[in-house]
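Pair request: fold both.
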Amino acid sequence: MKVAIIGAGVAGLATAYQLDKYKIPYVVFERRYQSGDPTPHVAANLEIINRPIKDIVSYFQAKHGLPLVPHRKITKILMLSPKNKAVVHGNYLGYFWLRGHLKNSLENQMLSQIKGEVRFKSPVDPEDLKHQFSHVVVASGTPQIARSYGIFHKLFDGWVIGSNVSGNFDPEELIMWIDTDYAKNGYAYLTPFNSKNASLCLVVKDISENQLDFYWKVLWQKEKLPYKIIETFTVNHIVGYLTTNQLGNIYFTGGAGGLIEPFLGFGIFYAIISGLLAAKAIKENISFNELLEPIRQAVRQSDTLRAGINKLNNDMLDYVVQLIAFGPVNFLFYHTPVDVVKILSKILKKAGLTR
């Protein structure tokens, strides 16, 4: 038995980590010259999204022996709509993670913990590998390969434009903006590296890349952002689901497997857990789809919530933020173990606010 892993991102390295524990040999093929995105940035995961799991760092350490070190805790969330704002405070609301080629990035942390062979600058085709290896794990981060097999169904097709910016920031504060004038049904967010530098990103659905600059300028002008741009990057952001995550001896994980939660587009937790489960399915010769079903169900619930949000105009978004700012709702959402995403998705589904 020998496994080919396509992609040295979080999902692929999680598979490699677990295969090491099983003593199953593998080769990781990465088309780029390094693990992680070319432009360093700060990603986030929110505790409210991953319930009933409260702390993903403790979860991966206790359940899988995988030690991960986040950049910082999130202790404050500021949500801004055109006319309202909501502030959430807490000792732990989630984590910030360094991404890209930075020394302590999530990718480099995981890369340092694997023992097998990693071949950089090695683009490969799963059709070629499936006859050379017992199993092929597709962890390329995008649905391009799944799409070529006709098993990917698109839910969200948009663009992300982001900048690393300088200014004055609270290192533990996540800032989010929702405004259809510049984000349509997407959002903008700011995640700090430290008190002087941060990542600022805008996610916009159903536009072409050459339209990004217009919406980017509207964001800066309307919000009167006081930051200075250091460098800018753009990424095509496609979210969807797969009809199956296993085709014979080919397994699709992380973003390549449609395992990005559609509400806010977070993917760290699902990428890691799907990579670990791919290794388990290979080791035990069991159905990868069955192992993934709880995650696939959580993604569907998140998509129902996203579908409901997509129908809101700015007046409605103002009302949502005002509701979140209301003390009892704020407490219920962020300071109890209630699975808010699951409950809201059920309410929206019964109300017919689905795709």
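--- second member of the pair ---
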Amino acid sequence: MPYLDNSLLIFTDLDGSLLDHDDYSWKPAQGWLTRLAEHQVPVVITTSKTAAEVTALQQALNLTDVPFIAENGAVIALPESWGDHLAWPRKVFGAEYGEIRKIIDALRLRYDFECRGFGDVDAAQVADWTGLQPDEARLAMAREGSEPLVWFGDERDLKRFEGYLNQEGLMLTRGGRFWHVMGAGVSKGQAVQWLAGEYRRLRGHPMVTIGLGDGPNDLSMLEAVDHAVVIRGHHDQPMPLANEQHDRVFRTTLYGPQGWKQGLDHFIHKSGQA
């Protein structure tokens, strides 16, 4: 198991993981966030949220000098301290938001698929869907490389919709609350691998990576790290991982930030001393 004084790199989902599913609090995780900051361990937010949303959250979480991954891996935002990096300030994967919207609109018009995305509604409706305040909902609508959808049709039509998206170079992934449409091949796991590689290059040595997530859209992230914390989720979706070895995967019994804390308690020793 890793120690706090190892070269650790943490990747974490937000909703239902670091943030409580209902009230978005991270209080139970604050002790670990403080401890990780004291040991200069980067905590990389890895979320379906937009860069606009994460920027505000980073301030509150005191993680502002760390890159973050937004929109399920479509966007990697680099901090000012990475200003000399060739990708600064953004590394973007996949299709742009406007192109994604055009394809969704065309498929709905042709096949009468029953779904609504953030681009179809106003901030009040997004606030109702998410539980966010209207100002927060507007930040959630500032999309760059993905579109969250509420699906109202049946499972058969969902499969057809996914097939047509694939033909257009797009893919569909399941999040905690929404389906997300983005460029083919885009995932949290792809972004985690890229960013872990950049940390390794910049620091001159490998990092021990830990990932924490609760939803199906976190699976690629959890597969891409050395140690995976599968946080108990408020959903009935399966969370299978290819490598279920007990020294690599821990499944929590607690939800949200309580589970987040439980996972780090399991994997990280306080120091390298015996």
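Observation on the second member. The mean pLDDT is 93.
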